[in-house]
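Long-time lurker, first post. I've been practising inverse folding by hand and with some scripts of my own, and I keep getting stuck on stretches where the structure tokens seem ambiguous. Below is the full token string for one chain I'm working on. Before anyone asks, I'm not after the true native sequence, just a reasonable design that respects the backbone. If someone could post their per-position residues I'd love to compare against what I wrote down in my notebook.
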């Protein structure tokens, strides 16, 4: 053979086109300890590592003359040898099969081999590596720390990257397909009242979504426990398998309402046999709000202690400062409402009522000394025994001075002498008085003077039709023009002057309205002023201990009102 012929043959051998990602058939020629010689139809034989032909028992699977599939890595490394791989051939073959599964939509088995950023690695057939995103592991959120390594599962290939030789798989698609079958079967047998098993799929502030196997049901927070809970995570976690009861089912909308507490006994059914109104029971503070606190008095039974029922004397108590969560307390049952499943509780009722204690130890007319707690537009609050307050109404401060003026003489923290006018323990009210410590000039006058009695006084105010006569300090009477003279058209402003001394006769005394009518004419028998009988339930205007506004009205005010009424006439 000439040099030219050899060169052509050599050039031809190197010019052979070869795809390193293709599979070719070869014949086993010779077997050595570490490698095997395979004829792949090239100018040089391929050398393949013997370990690639070993089975699980470390036994050689081929013999000389066997035809095998291999992938050629390189042609003639310069030493007259060609590299080939049986494992690569298997991977290439598996890759082509996996591409077929991707195109057909068939599922394929794989083993999760480890966790990587964003998901997991999965080893498919032939040792091909695939990526499983964390979001595609399941149709429900995967519990943190869930061990999936080493598990062989069914997957669906959702992406194939030929350039990068990457495969992305999904377990979620497989589960969804399975659930579609299960969903139809579940919907066919699902009914209200049935107990079913499900998996916690999602947690919200208002409840939990339970996967029943292709159908999601809502387990509302109020149906989780007979006890009050703030969040579903208090009794369940994502991925938990639980039994629930179907409360309602809308087949058309595929909406399922579930209950967990309904699987147990309703504690309210035995409540009537266990609790009665006025009963004192121990409990645990289970919740605190701005308007009170909830106390659990039995397993699954809790009632509200309103802020008004926490303390006898402090009506604006801050519940968060008064009690602590989990605190053991003693309460009294105030009200039971079976229909609304509500219990009203009280804490203050476990202590002596200071209002009743005061009522039992004090009575009307008792004189006391107290310290002014506060002063308002309508009166003065005085601190009493038992850390309670009594009210001196503005009309019960002075006989002679208007309440608005008399109240100015008092200051907060001042010690003051008072008299009890009335005690109403049920309404938590104690009426006090100051002026009642002194004699009433009106009543003194009324007791000492009959109709027709003669008296003397001075004119303090006068106009054409009437005059105000001061009979004593803090005591005034009204003299009308018609009671001054029988002459018609007499104007008192012409006949009388302010400061003028005058003898008068008592024409009438109106005790109810605290009004004295006077006359300059001697009265042989003055007519008695009759008043309409008091209607049932209406307050008496002249009640000495009530502190009504009529008691504080001066005769000067009455005079001016009367003059105004006459002008209208």
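-- Answer (accepted) --
I ran through it position by position. Result:
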């Amino acid at each position: 053979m000439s040099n030219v012929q050899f060169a052509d043959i050599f050039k031809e051998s190197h010019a052979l086109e070869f795809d390193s990602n293709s599979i070719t058939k070869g014949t086993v020629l010779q077997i050595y300890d570490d490698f095997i010689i395979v004829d792949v139809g090239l100018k040089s034989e391929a050398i393949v590592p013997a370990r690639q032909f070993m089975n699980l028992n470390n036994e050689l699977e081929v013999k000389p003359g066997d035809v095998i599939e291999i992938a050629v890595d390189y042609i003639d490394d310069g030493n007259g040898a060609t590299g080939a791989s049986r494992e690569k051939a298997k991977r290439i073959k598996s890759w082509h099969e996996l591409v077929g599964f991707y195109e057909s939509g068939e599922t394929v088995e794989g083993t999760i081999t480890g966790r990587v950023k964003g998901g997991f690695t999965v080893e498919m057939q032939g040792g091909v590596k695939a990526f499983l995103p964390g979001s595609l592991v399941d149709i429900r959120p995967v519990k943190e720390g869930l061990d999936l390594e080493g598990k062989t599962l069914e997957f669906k290939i959702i992406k194939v990257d030929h350039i990068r030789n990457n495969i992305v798989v999904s377990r979620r698609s497989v589960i969804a397909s399975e659930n579609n079958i299960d969903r139809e079967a579940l919907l066919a047998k699902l009914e209200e009242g049935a107990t079913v098993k499900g998996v916690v799929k999602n947690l919200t502030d208002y409840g939990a979504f339970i996967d029943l196997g292709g159908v999601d049901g809502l387990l509302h927070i109020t149906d989780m426990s007979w006890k009050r809970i703030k969040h579903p995570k208090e009794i369940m976690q994502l991925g938990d398998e639980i039994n629930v009861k179907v409360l309602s089912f809308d087949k058309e909308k595929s909406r399922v309402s579930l209950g967990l507490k309904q699987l147990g006994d309703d504690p309210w059914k035995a409540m009537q046999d266990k609790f009665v109104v006025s009963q004192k029971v121990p409990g645990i503070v289970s919740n605190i709000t701005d308007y009170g606190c909830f106390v659990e008095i039995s397993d699954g039974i809790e009632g509200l202690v309103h802020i008004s029922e926490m303390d006898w004397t402090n009506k604006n108590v801050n519940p968060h400062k008064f009690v602590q969560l989990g605190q053991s307390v003693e309460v009294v049952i105030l009200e039971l409402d079976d229909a609304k499943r509500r219990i009203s509780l009280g804490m203050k009722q476990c202590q002596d009522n200071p209002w009743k204690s005061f009522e039992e130890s004090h009575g009307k007319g008792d004189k006391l000394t107290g310290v002014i707690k506060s002063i308002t537009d309508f009166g003065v609050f005085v601190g009493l025994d038992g850390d309670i307050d009594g009210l001196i109404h503005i009309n019960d401060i002075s006989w002679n001075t208007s309440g608005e003026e008399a109240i100015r003489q008092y200051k907060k923290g001042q010690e003051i002498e008072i008299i009890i006018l009335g005690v109403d323990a049920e309404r938590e009210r104690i009426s006090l008085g100051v002026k009642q410590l002194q004699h009433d000039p009106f009543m003194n006058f009324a007791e000492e003077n009959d109709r027709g009695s003669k008296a003397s006084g001075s004119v303090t105010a006068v106009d054409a039709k009437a005059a105000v006569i001061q009979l004593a300090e803090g005591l005034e009477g009204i003299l009308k023009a018609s009671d001054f003279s029988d002459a018609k058209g007499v104007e008192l402003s012409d006949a009388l002057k302010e400061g003028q001394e005058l003898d008068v006769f008592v024409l009438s005394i109106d005790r109810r309205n605290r009004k004295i009518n006077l006359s300059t004419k001697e009265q042989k028998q003055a007519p008695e002023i009759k008043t309409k009988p008091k209607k049932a339930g209406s307050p008496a205007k002249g009640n000495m201990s009530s502190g009504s506004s009529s008691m504080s009205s001066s005769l000067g005010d009455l005079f001016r009102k009367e003059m105004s009424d006459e002008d209208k006439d």
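A couple of notes from the structure itself: Confidence is low (pLDDT under 50) at residues 9-17, 525-556. The domain at 354-437 is CATH 2.40.50.140 (OB fold (Dihydrolipoamide Acetyltransferase, E2P)). Happy to go over any region you disagree with.
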